[in-house]
Amino acid sequence: MHLAGDVGVQFECVCSQTHPGQTLWVVGSVPALGSWSLHAALQLETGPDTFPRWKSRDGVRVPRNQDVEFKFVIMSQNRDYVVWEQI
Protein backbone atom coordinates (compact mmCIF):
# COMPACT_ATOMS: atom_id res chain seq x y z
CA MET A 1 0.00 0.00 0.00
CA HIS A 2 1.32 3.45 -0.93
CA LEU A 3 0.45 6.32 1.35
CA ALA A 4 0.00 9.78 -0.15
CA GLY A 5 2.79 11.17 2.01
CA ASP A 6 5.32 8.52 0.97
CA VAL A 7 7.88 8.57 -1.80
CA GLY A 8 9.71 5.62 -3.36
CA VAL A 9 13.50 5.52 -3.17
CA GLN A 10 16.08 3.12 -4.55
CA PHE A 11 19.52 2.74 -2.97
CA GLU A 12 22.67 2.24 -5.00
CA CYS A 13 26.26 2.37 -3.79
CA VAL A 14 29.73 1.54 -5.09
CA CYS A 15 31.57 -0.46 -2.43
CA SER A 16 34.58 -2.66 -3.18
CA GLN A 17 35.56 -3.25 0.48
CA THR A 18 33.42 -6.37 0.91
CA HIS A 19 34.84 -9.88 1.02
CA PRO A 20 33.18 -13.24 0.22
CA GLY A 21 30.43 -13.89 2.79
CA GLN A 22 29.78 -10.19 3.38
CA THR A 23 26.94 -8.07 2.05
CA LEU A 24 26.05 -4.40 2.02
CA TRP A 25 22.99 -3.13 3.87
CA VAL A 26 21.22 0.18 4.46
CA VAL A 27 19.93 0.99 7.94
CA GLY A 28 18.24 4.22 8.91
CA SER A 29 15.86 6.32 10.92
CA VAL A 30 12.55 5.14 9.42
CA PRO A 31 10.79 1.76 9.69
CA ALA A 32 11.44 0.92 6.01
CA LEU A 33 15.17 1.09 6.83
CA GLY A 34 14.97 -0.77 10.13
CA SER A 35 14.68 2.16 12.57
CA TRP A 36 18.45 1.79 13.22
CA SER A 37 18.09 -1.95 13.98
CA LEU A 38 20.63 -4.02 12.04
CA HIS A 39 18.27 -7.01 12.17
CA ALA A 40 15.68 -5.03 10.19
CA ALA A 41 18.07 -3.34 7.73
CA LEU A 42 17.56 -3.36 3.95
CA GLN A 43 19.92 -5.72 2.12
CA LEU A 44 21.52 -4.54 -1.11
CA GLU A 45 22.51 -6.88 -3.93
CA THR A 46 25.40 -7.22 -6.36
CA GLY A 47 26.66 -9.90 -8.70
CA PRO A 48 29.66 -10.95 -10.79
CA ASP A 49 28.67 -8.59 -13.61
CA THR A 50 27.78 -5.62 -11.40
CA PHE A 51 30.29 -5.71 -8.51
CA PRO A 52 31.29 -3.33 -6.89
CA ARG A 53 27.91 -1.66 -7.55
CA TRP A 54 25.31 -2.63 -4.94
CA LYS A 55 21.61 -1.73 -5.18
CA SER A 56 18.30 -2.41 -3.53
CA ARG A 57 16.19 -4.99 -5.34
CA ASP A 58 12.99 -2.99 -4.95
CA GLY A 59 12.30 0.59 -4.02
CA VAL A 60 11.27 1.34 -0.47
CA ARG A 61 8.66 3.84 0.70
CA VAL A 62 9.77 6.62 3.04
CA PRO A 63 7.90 9.66 4.38
CA ARG A 64 7.91 12.52 1.87
CA ASN A 65 8.08 15.43 4.35
CA GLN A 66 10.45 13.95 6.91
CA ASP A 67 14.23 13.94 7.10
CA VAL A 68 15.52 10.40 6.61
CA GLU A 69 18.95 9.51 7.95
CA PHE A 70 20.74 6.35 6.84
CA LYS A 71 24.10 4.64 6.68
CA PHE A 72 25.53 1.84 4.60
CA VAL A 73 26.78 -1.13 6.63
CA ILE A 74 28.92 -4.13 5.65
CA MET A 75 27.84 -7.27 7.52
CA SER A 76 28.78 -10.93 7.46
CA GLN A 77 26.07 -13.49 6.74
CA ASN A 78 25.50 -14.21 10.43
CA ARG A 79 25.88 -10.50 11.30
CA ASP A 80 28.74 -11.02 13.75
CA TYR A 81 31.03 -8.74 11.72
CA VAL A 82 29.80 -5.20 11.15
CA VAL A 83 31.51 -2.20 9.54
CA TRP A 84 29.57 1.06 9.60
CA GLU A 85 29.94 3.69 6.90
CA GLN A 86 32.26 6.47 8.04
CA ILE A 87 31.10 10.07 7.79
TrEMBL record:
Residues 1-87 form the CBM20 domain. GO terms for cellular component: membrane. The keyword Transferase applies. It is an enzyme of class 2 (transferase). GO terms for molecular function: phosphoglucan, water dikinase activity; starch binding. Its EC number is 2.7.9.5. The keyword Transferase applies. Pfam families: CBM_20. Keywords: Kinase, Pyruvate, Transferase. This is Pyruvate phosphate dikinase, pep/pyruvate binding domain-containing protein. It comes from Toxoplasma gondii p89.
